[in-house]
Amino acid sequence: MKYLLLLLFTINAQADIFKDVFKYATLYGAYSQSNSIQGDKTFYVTQSSELIETTQRNSADEIKTFGFRKLAHFGYEDKDRFYDGEEQNNSLNSNIGNVKGLEYLFEYQEGRQQSMEFKNKQLFVRYLSKWWIAKAEANKNELVDIDYKSLDLRVRIPIGKKLSLSVGGVYRTYEKAYGVNPIQKYLEENNWWNLSYDYFNHTDALYSYENLMTGETGYDYFWYNAQGELISNSDLDYRNNIYGQLVNQYNKEQLAMIGSFADLSSVIGLDFYHYRKNFWVHAYGNILPHHKLQKGDERYSYGNFIGKDNWIDYKYGGVFGVRLNKKLGLFSEITMQRYWDREIKVIKAGINFKI
Amino acid sequence: MKYLKNKLCVAIALFVFSVTHSQSYKDDISVVLYTAEFIKDNYSLKPFREHNINTFYIEKDKNIHANDKIMYLPTICLYNNGELIEKIEAGLSMKLPESTTERIQEHIDELLQDKF
Fold it and tell me: ipTM score here?
């Protein structure tokens, strides 16, 4: 009997937890397709004056999105729409959401944009209580080249009902050695053509030329790829059209060899939210003043690059809106972020007048 | 220039103060009980403690009762971002109806659902 009661109690408790976790959650899927931006027309003219169009046509952009979310909107955000993965929720940027308790977002996107295939993954889980905040995030976005994970734990101090101060620590991983530019270091110690010889097995061959009209003479180089095929007729053409790709590939490979990093940083946050139908202000900010490298090659860490471990990373933003009367409204939105040497700035402001 | 800066700082401080203190008991989802100390069997707001809860006694907060046009005691009001969503008033018995909690909870569920 005792065990039966215990079992019933456990089942009941589990049912309650299940209800709390999934209540108001939305499972969604979406597919969108649109015309891709096309570049200017390009042409090639043969020796016999034949015109050949060489314009590269981009296939249509498309995105498939699958997601599962329980993320409250703020009062000023558009709620009356279906989720398709395109929505921007300030709840993901601010420390405090519009509800207490658990909020989450799991989203997977794959598709093509400007003929580039991509896969994006986003995970966001936050628990907001009166006195503490816990947040876990993982974001891999191949379109904007972002890949990071973070775990954020803070003590929260509510000041009145609208203002909230939070203090704690955040563990952040990053996949790239920010501030490090391998090609710069390489060129300080080598000639530019060494990269072509040593890393890509390109070869060159000296030739001389003479302008039969003017009698001007000179010399230049033919360039051949690893298979011995002619890829360029001069150094200038080679640097203009081939060498840039080699540099990118070299940088990518060298940075991948350095590996990933993780920092533990102190964080202080401030959030303010006031909403009425005709007037709203939402402001949030974080400042990360101290950092300690936890994982990764210290020689290439960001702290080593700038020579100190107390650089200031920050993120802040705000939304302001006012409906002055039934016809006239003003709004503005700002997001600023500087993490390591990466900056994001978004500023929007506008006016609406209904005629 | 310095005078202008100071003026701007004062204006911002006044603005923040007025916003933070303007009827904050009606912010977000708020359940407010208007009552009096002489009512012995007062209604408990415990079921709504996940949200903002406030109790105003007529003896201490006469102005709030007057501003919110409270005619009967006790009265319970549900607000969402300053907007009155539901007002339940006691009858001559000075007791709120038995279904008060359910009615308020139903509205809260709707408001929460609307946020997601």
Answer: 0.74
